[in-house]
C-alpha cells in the first residue's frame, strides 16, 4: 500500500521544534570505558554525531576502585583511589564529552546492605553512614575540580542515583530514604561549590504523580533549590522473553508524549519550580538490553518521531546508549543481540545511529522550523536553503510506504538536492548478518562487509526553479528514515570543463 501526500512549505511558515539531540548520550557502567572496543565505538559516535555530555551508572562501583578502607592502630580509616576515574574522565574529555554525573551505586564497604543489581553486582542499598557518603562525593568533586578546573567542572550536571522508584535499583524503593539521600547529597555538593547543578529523582516513566510530585513536595518542605528534574522514557509494552532475547510491542507514541506532558505539568504546578528544566536522562524504545527491536530499521524510524517531539517541554533527552559494550545481563552471545547501543560490535552503525546523525545536521544549521508533522520536520536556513528529516515506522508485517511530495518556496534558479536514505533495503546490517548465517563471532572480513552494508543510500540531483517553487519527492518505504538538503547551486566550472560533454562525448 502506498500513501501519497503533497505538502507546500511557505518560506515564512513557522512550526514548533526544539532540537537538543546532541546534549547527552548514555553509556554502560563507567568501568567499561577502560576497554578498547568501548573507546572505538564512542570515538565513532563522536566523529559522526558529537554529543556534549555522557551519563552512565557505576561511578562509585567497586570496579572503579574509588572508595577504599584501611585500618591503622585499630581505627578504620577511609582513602580514595582516582586512578581509573582519571583514565575514564581523560578519555571522555579527549573526545569532547562532559560527564552528566550520576552518583551511584554504593561501594560495598560503605553499603548498609548486600542487595545488588546486574551481572556486575552494583550495590543498591543506602550508605551505612551518610557523613562518609557525603565526604566521598565532596572529595570526588574537589579532585575533579583540581584536575580539570573549577570553572569547567561546575558545568557538569549532577544527578543523585538512578530509578529509586524500582526496588531493584534502590532497596525496597524506599521513597523517604531516597529523599534523605538526595537532601544530604544536595547540601554536600552545594557546600563544595554552589554553582553545581543538582537534580533528581531519575525515576522511570509512569510514576509522575507519585514520585515526581512527592519529590518536589519534599524539596519545598526542605527549602531545596533543586536545579532540575530527571526522569526516564521508554515506549514498549511488557516484553515477551524467549531464550536470551526479548520481543516487544511499541505503545502508541501519543501515550508516551502525554505522560511526558504530565511531568511538565506537575513541575510547573509548583510556583517555586515552574519552568524548571526536565532532563530525560534515559530514553529508548525498549528498557531491556536484549530487545531485538534495537537493531532494526523500525527502531530508527520510531526514534526519529520521538526526536521530533521530545524537546516539547524537556531540556534534554539522552538515548540509552551509544554502544553495545554493555553487560547488565551478562556478556552478549552474538553481535546483534538487541543491545541498547547505536553501534554494534565491530563499530557497525545500526540504523538508529543515522537517525541521530540526521538530527544533528538539523541541529547544526541556522535554520528555523517551517513544517512539522508525524512523519516530517523541515527547516529553512537564513540563506533560503532547506533541510529536513522524514520517517515512516511500520510495526506490522505489511508494506505501508509513503511518498511525500514537498513543494518548497524558493527563488528562481538552479538548486542542488541531496537525499540520504536508511531503510530495510538500503541500510540494514541486521539483515546482512542474518543472510551470512548469523555468525556469533565475526571475522574481520564480515565486520568490513557489515560496515559497508550499514551506510545510507545517497542520491543527488540538480533542479530548476522557474516559478519560485521546487518540488522534491521523498520515498519513505517501510521503516525508512530519510534526510534531505536543498540548496541554491551557483555553478562555477573550470575553464574548458563541460559536464554533459564529459559523460556523453
Write the layout of secondary structure elements.
Blueprint: E1 2-9, E2 24-27, H1 36-48, E3 53-56, E4 67-72, E5 75-80, H2 83-94, E6 98-99, E7 101-103, E8 116-117, E9 122-123, H3 130-148, H4 150-153, E10 158-160, H5 175-192, E11 198-203, H6 208-221, E12 228-234, E13 240-242, E14 245-247, H7 253-268, E15 278-284, H8 297-309, E16 316-319, E17 343-344, E18 348-349, H9 351-364, E19 368-373, E20 376-380, E21 386-392, E22 401-409, E23 413-422, H10 429-435, H11 444-453, E24 457-465, E25 469-476, E26 480-488, H12 499-504
Parallel strand pairs: 1-22, 2-3, 3-6, 7-10, 10-11, 11-12, 12-15, 15-16
Antiparallel strand pairs: 4-5, 8-9, 13-14, 17-18, 19-20, 20-21, 21-26, 22-25, 23-24, 23-26
Helix pairs in contact: 3-5, 6-7, 8-9, 10-11
Structural commentary:
The structure is a single chain. With 505 residues, the chain is of the alpha/beta class. Helix content is 29%, strand content 27%. The chain contains 12 helices and 26 strands. The strands form 8 sheets. Strands 7-10-11-12-15-16 form a 6-stranded parallel beta sheet. Strands 19-20-21-26-23-24 form a 6-stranded antiparallel beta sheet, covered by helices on one side. A 3-stranded mixed beta sheet has the order 1-22-25, with no helix packed on it. Strand 10, helix 5 (175-192) and strand 11 form a beta-alpha-beta unit. Helix 3 runs parallel beside helix 5, helix 6 runs parallel beside helix 7 (253-268) and helix 8 (297-309) packs parallel to helix 9 (351-364). It is globular and about 90 Å long. The model has no long low-confidence stretch (mean pLDDT 95).
